[in-house]
Structure formats: C-alpha cells, structure tokens
Amino acid sequence: MSHIDVAHAPAFPGGTILGYPRIGRMRELKKALESFWKGASTADDLEAAAKDLRLATYARLAELGLGADDASLPSNFSFYDHMLDAAVTFGAVPTRFEGLRAQDGSIDLAGYSTVARGRGDDAPLEMTKWFDSNYHYLVPEIGPETSFALSSTRWADQFVEAKEAGYLTRPVITGPLTFLYLAKASDEAGEDYRPIDRLSDLIPVYVELLAAFKAAGATWVQIDEPILVADIDADRAEVLANAATAYDALVAATDRPALFVAAPYNDLGDALPVLVESGVEAVGLDLVRGAVPSGVDLSGITVVAGVVDGHNIWRTDLDAALRTADAVAALGGTVAISSSTSLFHVPHTLTGEEHLGEELLSWLAFADEKVAEIVTLATARAEGEEAVADALAATRDALAARAGHPGTRRAEVRAALAAVAPDDLDRPAYSVRAAAQDARFGLPELATTTIGSFPQTPEIRKARAAWAKGTLSDADYEQAMKDEIASVVRLQEDLGLDVLVHGEAERNDMVQYFAELLDGFDVTVNGWVQSYGSRCTRPSILWGDVARPEPMTVRWAQYAQSLTDRPMKGMLTGPVTILAWSFVRDDQPLGDTANQVALALRDEIADLETVGIGIIQVDEPALRELLPLKKADQPAYLEWSVNAFRLATSGAKDDTQVHTHLCYSEFGEIIDAIDGLNADVTSIEAARSRMEVLPAIKNHGYERQIGPGVWDIHSPRVPSTDEVTELIALAKESIPGRQLWVNPDCGLKTRGYDETIASLRHMMAATQAVRSA
C-alpha cells in the first residue's frame, strides 16, 4: 500500500489534460531544432527557445482555466521524442553512441540529436508508430550491456523552471512497462533477448527519479502506461504480473510525489484492478475508446476520467460526457475530468482558422478548445450544470446542426456505395496479370524505382505560397511545377532508374492534396501536429460524404509521361491512409467512409489508364497504424481496410501494374492483410530494421513482387554503396530476384537534393553490383 496517507494526499485537480502540443503554435520548436541542426544557432539558442515555448504553454493553459498551482498543468515537453527522452534519462544509449556521453553519463543536445538522426555509418534508433496514432517514436535498444542509471536531470530541471516561473506543474514520464515492452533487443543481445526482463534493474532508477521530483517540490507525477491497454505478443498474465511488480515497488518508495498512472488509447480492462490494488493515488481511463469499468471498487482512488477526445477534433457532447463521469463516480472514486489522451495529437487552436466558416468551426475543438471543454465539465461537476448552462446549450445546438447538414449525407454517394458488388473487389489471378505486365513493360530483375515524392525545395514552396496568395498567376505556377517535374524526370533517367515518378512537386502533402480536390473535406491553415522530431503534418478534416468532382492527378502524370519513354507511375494515396492522416468524421463507421474514398480513387485510376499510365501506386503507409489495439477488434478492421483498397484498385486492367507502399509498421502481424490487398508490387520500410520483416514474408509464401526499402530516408545520412549492396543481398535471401524491387524506404520530400542524388547513385550502383554478381 501507499506510503502516502491517502487522507492527506494532495488533492488531484478537478480538471486536467494528459499532455499538450509540444511544437508551438507557429511550429517554434521545429524552426529552432532545424536551425540548430544546420549550425545556424547554438545549443543555448535552442534551450532558450524551448524554455520560452514551455512557459508560454503554461501561461496559455492557466489563461484557459487550468490551475497554475494545483498540478493540473502537465509538463510533457520533448525536444524530439518522449521515448528517446526516457532512453537518455535512464542511460539506455546504444553502444555505438557511447562516445556521446559525458563522464557523468549525460548527453548534450547535439548527442541527443545524433541518437535520433544518426551519423556516418551509425544508424539512428529505429522508428515506428506510437500505438494506433500517426505519431512516430524512437525504439530504445536494450541489451545485457545496458547499464541503467539516472543519467539526465532534464525532467526535474523543467519542473523547477516552471516552479520558479510560478507554475506548479505535473511532470509526465513514460512508464517502465511501456518503455521496456516497446524497446527492442540491442545488436549485442541477440534475437531472443527481452528488454522487459530488465524490469527489476530499471525500477530503482524510477524510484530515484521520483525522489528527485519530490525533492524539487512536485506533488504529483504522471506515469504514462498505454502498453496496458494493448494486446501485445507477451502473455497477458505476464504483463499484469509485471504491472503489479512495478507499481507495488513504486508505491512503496518512501520519498515520492503522488502517482497518477495514465493509460490512454483504449480500455484498461483487467489491468485496472492491478493498479488500484497497488495503491497508486490516481488512474487515468480513456473513456472515449474504452468503457466505464464494472465490477471494481474505486473507493479511495482518484479516477481521471478521459471523456474529452484527445485523438480527434470534434466538439465534445458535454451532456454525454457528464453522464459518463457520473457513471464512474458511482464506482466510489473521486472523479477528475480530463482528455482521453495527450492533446499533442491535435492542433493548438481554432484561432486563425476562420476560413473554415462559422458552421464547421462550431463543430470542432482543437487543443485550446478541448481545455475549455474540460474546464466547463469540471465546473459543472463542482458547481452544478446551471453554472455552465449557456455552454451546454451552445454545444447541443452545434451538434444538432452538424447532424442535419446536407453535406453529411449525399444521396448520390450513398447510392453508388450501395451498388458495389462482390465482384468489384476482385482482379484476375496474379499469374494472368503478371504475364500481361511483363509483356507491356519488360522490366529487369531487381527493378528500381522510388516511392513517389522528390525533395520539396524552398523554390517549390515559395511558388506554391505565392500562387495561394494570388501573387503568382495560374500559368506561371503551372510552368514552375512543370519545370520541376521535367528536372526530376531527367535526373531519374540520368541515374538509370527503371520506373520513374513525377516527384509530386504540385502536392503540399500526400493527403491534403486530395482533400483539397474531394468534396466532404476541408483543410486548415495552421492545424499542425507533430509526426516525429521536427516533422509536422497538417491533417485535413473529413466531415461529410466524399465525392470526386473531377480528375485530380491525371494532367500531371500525363505531362510527366510525355517527357520519357520509361514507365511513369501514377501516384495516389489510399483510402485507409487518407482516413488515418485526416481528422475523420465520427458519426458513421470508418469502413463506410473508407469505401466512399475508395470509389473516388477507383474513378481516378480509370482516368489515369485512359491517358496511358500503366503503373499506378496507391499508397497505404498507414494500414498497420489504424489496427485496433485489442485483438478481438482486429479482424473486422482488417476486413474493411483491405476491402477498401481492393475496391479502389480492382477495376484496373490486367496489364496495369498496381503498386502500394507501407512504412513504419510491424508487418508480421498483418501479413495476411498485406497479401489480401492483392497489389502487384508492395514496397515496405525495411532499411533501419535491416530486412527483419522479410523472413515472415517468405514463410507466408508471398507470391507477388515486393520492394523492401534499402535507404532510410528519415535520417540525413547517405548510405554507402556497400551498405545498400548488403541490404539487397539480405533481401535476396528471402525474396527471389524476379520478385524483388529496389527502392528507398519512403518518399523523398523531406530530404535535400545533394543527399538524395548521392543516395540514389549508391542505390543504383549497388543494384548493378548485385545484378552482375
């Protein structure tokens, strides 16, 4: 049981959030980081910019109604990634970066960035998706050589910084179970090594960290344990036993703040009694994706009720949220109101998005607006609903207006979807298609291509911005894009690539581009969210029924094909990825929305074929991303997601080669779904993991063609010819040469031309070497 007297434990605030966007309203962190990386500013400059951002966040949250002195303000800042922060804090830095550590084990900002981004032949930490979100985390590497120690004081220093500025914050740290279960075995450890087996070695370091927070004056610490809501490969009984071990030990620590364990992204289920019995003072429940628990006595504990959706941008049904909070309170605990997840999954504020129109704006809530909702709900519970009657009435009106809007149910869209027949999901046998495609294209063994985008230069961005502002004419903008396309085509021909792309110069984003051309979407001006590190995305808003007024990509692909005799890929974003990387309507099943997008893409593919485009890539990098965290929910998701892709692509002719692309995912558990997509060629992320997914694909008996990435484009380092040659050779151990393509891991939009050209030259030289061997 707790060494903190529950009766005298610090009160938990009535309303809080699990976290707040970390990048800044105007992406201040992104700009400061990239300036530092370029050598245009110093580490002190970066530290100063980060401090300004943190203090501005606390001031804004206090202005919105969260208390400045009751631990309701979470301290969840990160320069790059919270899993990387945990690795650095606990001394879990890979041996290849050991030289970056100071004598006391700490690592400075330059070293921290190197671990994240790599250097020379030293690859960065692997990156993959954070649960079922579009955020990427860095995967810690842990082995028997890892010596856990409290190696960084940053988390405690940031608490002190806030306290000195007048804010009593609540430090937010990654929990030991999530840290270890999401880590991978280091190269030194071997395949069978399990980082979670080091739990007993890590717990004392957490105890030491908690003591440091206590000494600094923290009253509460938030420990994030989303791993507890997910069905993972480990036996569930083992996970629960490890949870009991970890939290019994942390609760027993004699020198600590009160502990708040947050478990976002789904239902905590059978882990809730374990946490309650451990004696932690507060537990956070995601009550948007999870249910109100039953059969558990919550007396004597604070339940932080996540009734405001931290993962999407729709206005909360405040009446329903209050009913949910009441249901939780009936279980005996003290209830506090919160977001279901950290708000770093949503943009900062609706301010500045007035172009969306008053009606659509009234349906939405970004981070600041969600904080306001939480304050309203907390006030209603503390003072009665009459105290917030106007806010409750305004929400009811907005929700009713949204439900009745004609754009949310278009008869012609629903009739087209109702007419879809089972045959619309099928193509002829792959052997028939392969023969037709070989006859048409005659591609060599180890065919080479790229994933789609080429670097988006400052000149491209300036031209697009000027065109959007009306200071560049339509004709001049089109010519600027055509000039870039022509340059990209010439470059690929010079490099010797077999299948070319037009480079996507005209596209601001692989989802937003389509959202701007499809009915049922709107886009923001400054609705940025962090994807990883300094990389930010601007998800579109999918609010209504989806329809395609006119062709979206045809004229650009047709122009690019006119410049070369080599095959030119038409480039489309798949229905699942368009949903995953947008904020999607929550008033109908996701599968229905995906099929609406699929029908629009089906028409686009037919139009591309009409102008002679014979290779069409429909990217689905987010297929694994939306996979439900509970195994029981996964078959239904995989069925509708695979069927949406097949609906989009199965109208293609036999001699049209359909490609798809998947990235930053654990593919082994969805190999059946990848096979089910029935694409002719599938390219996947594989460079950082050194082809570790390919044995599973081989064992599955995958018969179609596959392009495992041989160049990790998420790092600025240029792989050597020898490195790429080795990766191709590794790939050939699992995939026969006639099935194997050679390509980068992902699109090249974020890379510079110098590194792109060098890396592609090395890729082509390596391919030729393997072909000739």
How would you explain this protein's 3D organization?
- The chain is of the alpha/beta class.
- Helix content is 41%, strand content 13%.
- It has 26 helices and 23 strands.
- A 7-stranded parallel beta sheet has the order 1-5-7-8-9-10-11. The chain has a 5-stranded parallel beta sheet with strand order 17-19-20-21-22. It has a 3-stranded mixed beta sheet with strand order 13-16-18.
- Helix 5 packs parallel to helix 7 (199-216).
- The longest helix has 22 residues, at 43-64.
Per-chain topology:
Layout lengths: L27 H10 L5 H22 L8 E3 L6 H8 L19 H9 L9 E3 L6 E3 L2 E2 L11 H11 L4 E6 L1 H7 L1 E2 L13 H18 L3 E5 L11 H17 L5 E6 L7 H8 L3 E5 L15 E7 L9 H12 L4 E6 L18 H6 L3 H17 L5 H16 L6 H8 L11 H12 L5 E2 L9 H12 L4 H22 L16 H4 L3 E4 L6 E4 L2 E3 L2 E8 L6 H9 L6 E5 L1 H6 L1 E3 L5 H21 L4 E5 L14 H16 L7 E6 L8 H6 L4 E4 L9 H7 L4 E4 L12 H12 L8 E2 L10 H20 L1
Parallel strand pairs: 1-5, 4-6, 5-7, 7-8, 8-9, 9-10, 10-11, 12-23, 16-18, 17-19, 19-20, 20-21, 21-22
Antiparallel strand pairs: 2-3, 13-16, 14-15
Helix pairs in contact: 1-2, 5-7, 7-8, 8-9, 14-21, 16-17, 21-22, 25-26
